[in-house]
Design goal:
GO terms for molecular function: actin filament binding. The protein is an alpha+beta fold. The chain is built from 8 helices and 7 strands, in the order αβββαβααβαββααα. The structure holds zinc ion.
């Protein structure tokens, strides 16, 4: 329809780096068994560019995502980079609410893994009954299921229910994690996923034991004191990048 020739600037060095990081992340999620057919999203803000985000091309499996086929979109889901791939705009609605309202939410991860969805579907939610779950005690927001998250008016309630927290269990639906960097979001998600898997396994092993509040306080205090100079999740993420790179280095293309 449009006859005007659209010129798309070459991606900046920052954008190219963000593309590589996010493409690697999709491959890692698939390697970990956290992909969901062609659905779900991990989105990353493009540094140095107001209101620009990278998202997976709709229709491709996470194992097919590469640095160059990620789609650059604005907050309304409009394609900015002339990508031939469509974007799951409905799926981006929820991410855009958080990207729009939370300046620190540079990377957002949403999954439907069995463990996360199972825990989200329980009345108790994530219980402090294991090492990993103890890190999240008092730090998880919950949002009741309202049907598929495509209606913008749900956004207000999502933001209100999240409050100051950055990890959310979408009841009956799945998990949502956001952080200022992709490696930080990755590590946070990994811990949450492990916590959920172990909670599900614990339920079939016997009667779960709640960790007492005073032990949780000590645990969370000591974890906070273990910050790495590289920033949270960096060595963890880099280790997993090496793993997926050995399997198929094509993610970089
Ligand atoms: Zn979902």
């Amino acid at each position: 329809m449009a006859t005007a020739i659209q010129h798309h600037a070459q991606p900046s060095a920052q954008e190219r780096e963000a593309r590589r990081q996010l493409a690697a992340c999709y491959r890692i999620f698939d390697h970990m068994g956290w992909s969901e057919l062609i659905y779900n999203h991990i989105t990353l803000r493009v540094p140095g560019e107001e209101g620009a985000f990278l998202i997976n091309p709709f229709g491709l499996h996470y194992s097919e995502v590469t640095a160059s086929n990620l789609v650059k979109i604005d907050l309304d889901g409009n394609v900015l980079d002339g990508s031939p791939y469509p974007v799951n705009r409905a799926g981006f609605v929820q991410h855009s609410v958080f990207h729009r309202h939370l300046p620190d939410a540079h990377c957002i991860i949403h999954t439907h893994t069995t463990a996360a969805m199972a825990v989200s579907a329980t009345r108790e939610g994530l219980r402090p009954t294991n090492f990993y779950a103890a890190a999240f005690a008092g730090r998880i927001a919950y949002h009741d299921f309202e049907g598929v998250t495509i209606r913008p008016e749900e956004g207000e309630r999502l933001i209100a229910n999240l409050g100051q927290r950055r990890v959310m269990m979408l009841r009956n639906h799945g998990a949502l994690v956001m952080a200022p960097t992709l490696p930080a979001a990755f590590l946070m998600y990994w811990i949450l996923q492990r916590a959920c898997e172990i909670q599900v396994a614990t339920g079939s092993a016997g009667t779960p034991v709640d960790i007492p509040d005073e032990v949780i306080a000590v645990h969370q205090r000591d974890l906070a004191g273990m910050q790495l100079p590289t920033g949270p999740g960096v060595p963890d993420f880099e280790a997993m990048v090496r793993v997926i790179d050995r399997i198929d280095p094509g993610w970089k293309e």
